[in-house]
């Protein structure tokens, strides 16, 4: 804002006053600082957030343009990448297990029982024949163990971030499995006790009983131990374990029928072995139905969880 100042000349003589011949104009520029807004100026536009969780700090950024990464963050990122690479490598390794596992089970269990002649194994009612038959069953047990380990490895999640799949069998399943296993123990032992007491005639010698049903009882005990371990470890193979062992048990008892003719075993012994074959075929059918039931049960559970998740999403939206 400019202001004009008019100056006049005062003469030295105070008696006579004469106006000045000229007039000097002096201008001074003065600045005025005003904080009040005039009524005709528009008010400033302000923006306010409804949910102000930043406490007035909107779109805050760091002072430095390039941010440095922490060493812990880089290490964690490197570990995640290495874990992802390892998981991808394990995924490639798991694919051959789908073929190698059944082939191992076939080579160790079915091939010796179906194609190996009985005359090359059975040399008579002696200890050598018993050890030969037990060796065949031990070979199958090794193959079954490898198969179950491969099946457990294939059931694990592919990504490293996911938790391992733990499956806990229900109490009724474990109870009826134990009932079937104990029943398979009781019937041969009752047959041996009745033969020793003279209830069954003619009597069956102990060595003949050991050759016919000794490997059967040994593998039945191994199956019980394997099932208890899978229940304790909560491995998903607990549903497959009895199917594997019971399928071989049927072939094992059919081999016992052939050996009964070689040993000239009594007729009641062969009838007991046929009854055991029927019993384990029945139990095997129940086990297969349990597999179908478990698949349907898990499908229903997955459907319920998906419906609950969709309901939660709609409610939140």
TrEMBL record:
List all membrane-crossing ranges.
Answer: 95-118, 130-151, 171-194, 206-226, 272-295
**Alphabetically ordered keywords of this record:** Membrane, Transmembrane, Transmembrane helix
Q: Which domain of life is it from?
A: Eukaryota
What is this protein identified as?
Cytochrome P450 family protein
């Amino acid at each position: 804002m400019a202001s004009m100042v008019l100056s006049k000349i005062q003469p030295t003589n105070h008696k006579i006053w004469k106006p000045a011949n000229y007039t000097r104009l002096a201008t001074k520029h003065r600045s005025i600082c005003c904080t009040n807004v005039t009524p005709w100026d528009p008010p400033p536009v302000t923006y306010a957030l409804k949910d102000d969780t930043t406490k007035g700090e909107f779109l805050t950024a760091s002072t430095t343009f390039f941010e440095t990464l922490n060493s812990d963050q880089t290490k964690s990122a490197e570990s995640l990448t290495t874990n992802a690479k390892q998981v991808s490598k394990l995924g490639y390794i798991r694919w051959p297990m789908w073929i190698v596992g059944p082939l191992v089970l076939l080579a160790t269990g079915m091939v010796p029982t179906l194609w190996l002649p009985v005359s090359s194994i059975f040399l008579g009612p002696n200890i050598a024949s018993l050890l030969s038959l037990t060796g065949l069953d031990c070979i199958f047990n090794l193959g079954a163990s490898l198969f179950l380990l491969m099946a457990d490895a294939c059931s694990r999640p592919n990504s490293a971030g996911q938790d391992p799949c733990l499956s806990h069998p229900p109490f009724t399943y474990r109870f009826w499995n134990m009932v079937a296993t104990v029943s398979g123990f009781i019937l041969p032992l009752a047959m041996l006790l009745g033969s020793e007491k003279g209830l069954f005639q003619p009597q069956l010698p102990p060595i003949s009983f050991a050759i016919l049903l000794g490997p059967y009882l040994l593998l039945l005990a191994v199956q019980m131990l394997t099932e208890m371990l899978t229940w304790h470890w909560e491995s998903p193979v607990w549903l497959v374990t009895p199917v594997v062992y019971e399928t071989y048990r049927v072939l094992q008892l059919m081999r016992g029928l052939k050996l009964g003719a070689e040993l000239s075993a009594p007729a009641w012994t062969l009838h007991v072995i046929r009854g055991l074959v029927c019993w384990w075929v029945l139990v095997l059918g129940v086990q297969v139905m349990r597999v179908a039931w478990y698949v349907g049960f898990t499908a229903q559970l997955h459907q319920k969880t998906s419906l609950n998740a969709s309901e939660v999403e709609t409610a939140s939206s």
